[in-house]
Amino acid sequence: MAFATPSVLFDNHGRPLEYVRLAVTDRCNLRCFYCMPAEGIEYLPKNELLSYEEMERTVRVLAGLGVRKARLTGGEPFVRRDLVPFIGRLSEIPGIEDISLTTNGVLTAPHVPELARIGVKAVNLSLDTLDRTRFHRITRRDELPRVLDTFYALLAAGIQVKINAVVMDGQNTQDLVPLAELTRELPVDVRFIEEMPFNGGSHAAIGIPWDHRRIREHLAENFPGLTPVASKPGATATDYTIPGHLGRVGIIAAYSRTFCGTCNRIRLTAEGGLKTCLYDQGVLDVRALLRGGASDLEVQEALANAFRFRAANGFEAEQQRPLHQLSFESMSTIGG
Description:
Elements: E1 19-23, H1 52-64, E2 69-73, H2 83-91, E3 98-103, H3 112-118, E4 122-126, H4 132-139, H5 144-156, E5 160-167, H6 176-185, E6 189-194, H7 212-222, E7 227-228, E8 237-241, E9 248-252, E10 265-268, E11 273-275, E12 284-285, H8 286-291, H9 296-307, H10 314-319, H11 331-334
Parallel strand pairs: 1-2, 1-10, 2-3, 3-4, 4-5, 5-6, 6-9
Antiparallel strand pairs: 7-8, 8-9, 10-11, 11-12
Catalytic activity: GTP + AH2 + S-adenosyl-L-methionine = (8S)-3',8-cyclo-7,8-dihydroguanosine 5'-triphosphate + 5'-deoxyadenosine + L-methionine + A + H(+)
EC number: 4.1.99.22
Pathway: Cofactor biosynthesis; molybdopterin biosynthesis
């Protein structure tokens, strides 16, 4: 079908929208304390999740609006059955040039050869520590060996690997240096992420002692010659090289929100909610449109209209939320 809008869509602040993060499930096989309570969260009934067909249709419409990259997230994507065939179908959508994944790696290793065959370009691997005891304490599961199996399988398959490590005071700050050391001999990016308030708990969000400045200072103390490199448009991480290292380290100021000015991404939650900012409450019920009989053109127009009222940054989006109750959400429901 023909679309009436230009090939690149800009929001009301002049930022191109080229990248969708697609949560395929709200379920997860880990219980990381910074993401959800120990007992887990109340998962959505299956019929309230977008079907693969609905997600595929939405991505086709978004591709008509200029979206070129799709990243599959969760929850944990691989807890949903038939994920890999779905990825294959997404890769065939005209206009989608880049398919990538974010995973905790527990169930991923057996699928790596097929991911490489399909053409998955990059995988972000959530890994907050290389210490098995701390991994168990943080995730409430003893799964570090399986995650490391995935890590090495991805490298062997030639898939770009980025490790995402959430930096938590009193929990894993001693792991920053060992994780960064992975970049010495391996072509991997290790990104350290400021802790965010999306933990599914009931306490209010507070400031963080390990912000992007302190993380950088700690890395610089341990790796002399730490040098920033130019960021690509829309990048969330500030990347650094270390002399003699094959890979790079990066810092994502997710709580400080220093990268909002060039943000080019949107999120689609597992239940079909459109989020034009990680910190907003959701701006459009895409599932209702799809199941209400809307045509592709009507869905496209609704999406384009939502993009015209996008918050300037995460702070503005947070202020627009009722009661500012960020901590009642889990990152598992938001979509990584």
